Write a sequence for this structure.
């Protein structure tokens, strides 16, 4: 048996070797071409991905540029300053003053942040420092879920609840008659819309404050609130500012909900009970159906450009601060 | 004396915190409660199954099937296109550009900023593109605008998720001799739950956005059968009907708002549950 197998092996050795050799050769060749094709595919997809990445970013610049080009007819013979600072809005007489709209945007935004900030700051502190895990586990998902609710729903809610509330309860307190549609209603609705954003960003900023710092303060005999006041808040001040700026830019761009409750009268608001007409509402109300009046389209695109530039700057500012906050911690 | 004072201060602010947490939670609950109560009383099955009949806008019968289908088309289509665009972008940002370089930071900053650009600007931009291409307001126009809105959202959420993948995984892959493309394939399999979640969140965002489709998708009482036809969308259906002076039509707006809210909440909850379920199988 033993002998037989040896002979068998000897007999087959050359053949085996040849087979193995040929197999190796083809395998190597296949590997080589395989490697080449793998590298080729890698390179091609890398280029494609690069083009996509930069191409999409480029579209942001394209938007700004496009808005500028389309609003140029309006800018001929009028300076930007003049357009921004004048008040008359009579498209038929070629009179375009954007001040009422800009002021409308600013009033509504400022009011909403003023309402939302203290509430969100307090809640964020509560959630990060005091709240038991159970409550945290209920509130945070709820806030996240509600951040997904469409703005038109907030608008419907505003019309149903906030506007009557302002008309029937708030206005009589001051002895003023209003329809309820105006800065206050828009501010309240907007403030609720920016709750999730503020809570999330401030919460994240609080998370970046090292536990050791807080412990050090507590071990020195400070109360929890003193620790919050002197350590947590002070340490996360830049982050809170970034959150505010982010909330401002979000509020500036909000359209449908504001449009539904702000009253849409192009005057400069003098109190929170007056009507307002923010930039975004101006665009949404009139764009797409105004080609019969010359320069009107230009004017609306100029409004869009003002909005775009403001939001772009605010966003860039807050993101830069946030990047810094993150890096300082790491 | 000082001691009691600072404890009093703490007590005071603690009460304030409870109140503000209560206000925030209360507002959010109040919104949902209002929509459900108002919408439920005006809701009937015709809303879901019929397109607007003759005289729908003066309070006669019909439903908003056209808007529901239009919204699903636009949000669904835009989410799929958005995913196809944003996955390569995220892979490029995370695998091909080294972290913490100037270029990488700039690109991230750029996408963060685009995330913050409001939908109305994308709507205006979309409309300009449509006019430039010589088209009319249509399903395609809505798709373009919503895709522009969605891609930055997807890129930002996917970026966050891809960062949770341990670097050991890609190190191991590279040491086995994989190319970047092959590494990307494995990593995407690893973050699949995150991809599903971000897809669903983007879908929810797309279905609820009114300003982007306001100028681009148009409005029609029929269900669109091709990309060139105008399409109704749910947020606009709510918006237009609420503006009507007729009570029946307004009631329908509340019912439509209920439908939209239910869709959005359903998607958000599904994405949460699904994300948890799918992440069971990924390596930690």
């Amino acid at each position: 048996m033993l002998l037989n197998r040896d002979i068998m092996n000897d007999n087959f050795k050359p053949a085996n070797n040849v087979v193995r050799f040929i197999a190796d050769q083809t395998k190597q060749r296949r590997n080589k071409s395989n490697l080449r094709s793998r590298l080729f595919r890698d390179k091609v997809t890398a280029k494609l991905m690069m083009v996509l990445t930069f191409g999409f970013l480029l579209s942001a610049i394209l938007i700004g540029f496009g808005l500028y080009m389309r609003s140029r007819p309006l800018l001929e013979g009028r300076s930007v300053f003049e357009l921004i600072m004048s008040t008359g809005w009579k498209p038929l007489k070629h009179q375009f003053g954007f001040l009422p709209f800009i002021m409308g945007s600013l009033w509504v935004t400022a009011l909403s942040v003023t309402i939302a900030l203290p509430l969100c700051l307090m809640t964020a502190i509560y959630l990060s420092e005091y709240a038991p895990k159970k409550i945290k586990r209920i509130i945070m998902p709820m806030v996240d879920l509600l951040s997904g609710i469409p703005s038109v729903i907030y608008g419907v809610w505003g019309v149903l609840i906030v506007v009557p509330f302002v008309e029937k309860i708030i206005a009589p307190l001051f002895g003023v008659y209003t329809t309820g549609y105006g800065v206050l209603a828009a501010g309240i609705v907007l403030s609720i819309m920016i709750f999730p954003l503020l809570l999330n960003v401030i919460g994240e900023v609080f998370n970046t404050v090292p536990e050791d710092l807080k412990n050090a303060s507590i071990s020195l005999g400070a109360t929890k609130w003193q620790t919050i006041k002197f350590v947590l808040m002070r340490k996360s001040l830049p982050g809170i500012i970034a959150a505010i700026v982010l909330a401002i830019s979000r509020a500036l761009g909000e359209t449908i909900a504001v449009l539904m409750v702000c009253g849409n009268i192009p005057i400069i608001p003098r109190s929170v009970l007056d009507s307002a007409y923010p930039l975004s509402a101006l665009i949404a109300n009139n764009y797409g159906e105004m080609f019969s009046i010359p320069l009107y389209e230009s004017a609306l695109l100029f409004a869009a450009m003002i909005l775009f530039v403001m939001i772009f700057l605010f966003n860039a500012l807050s993101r830069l601060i946030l990047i810094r906050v993150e890096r300082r911690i790491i | 004396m000082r001691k009691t004072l600072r404890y009093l201060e703490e007590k005071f602010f603690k009460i304030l915190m409870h109140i503000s947490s209560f206000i925030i939670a209360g507002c959010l609950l109040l919104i949902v409660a209002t929509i459900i109560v108002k919408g439920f009383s005006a809701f009937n099955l015709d809303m879901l199954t019929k397109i607007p009949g003759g005289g729908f806008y003066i309070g006669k019968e019909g439903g908003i099937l056209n808007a529901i289908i239009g919204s699903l088309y636009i949000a669904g289509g835009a989410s799929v296109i958005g995913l196809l665009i944003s996955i390569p972008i995220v892979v490029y940002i995370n695998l091909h550009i080294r972290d913490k370089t100037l270029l990488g930071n700039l690109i991230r900053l750029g996408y963060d900023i685009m995330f913050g650009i409001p939908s109305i600007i994308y709507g205006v931009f979309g409309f300009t593109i449509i006019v430039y291409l010589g088209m009319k307001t249509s399903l395609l126009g809505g798709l373009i605008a919503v895709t522009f809105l969605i891609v930055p959202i997807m890129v930002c959420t996917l970026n966050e998720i891809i960062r949770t993948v341990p670097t050991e995984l890609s190190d191991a892959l590279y040491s086995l001799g994989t190319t970047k493309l092959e590494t990307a394939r494995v990593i995407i399999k690893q973050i699949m739950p995150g991809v599903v979640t971000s897809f669903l969140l983007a879908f929810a965002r797309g279905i609820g956005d009114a300003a982007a489709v306001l100028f681009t998708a148009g409005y029609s009482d029929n269900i669109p059968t091709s990309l060139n036809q105008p399409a109704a969308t749910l947020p606009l259906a709510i918006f237009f009907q609420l503006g009507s002076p007729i009570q029946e039509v307004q009631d329908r707006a509340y019912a439509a708002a209920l439908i939209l809210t239910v869709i959005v909440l359903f998607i958000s909850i599904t994405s949460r549950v699904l994300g948890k379920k799918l992440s069971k199988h990924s390596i930690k």
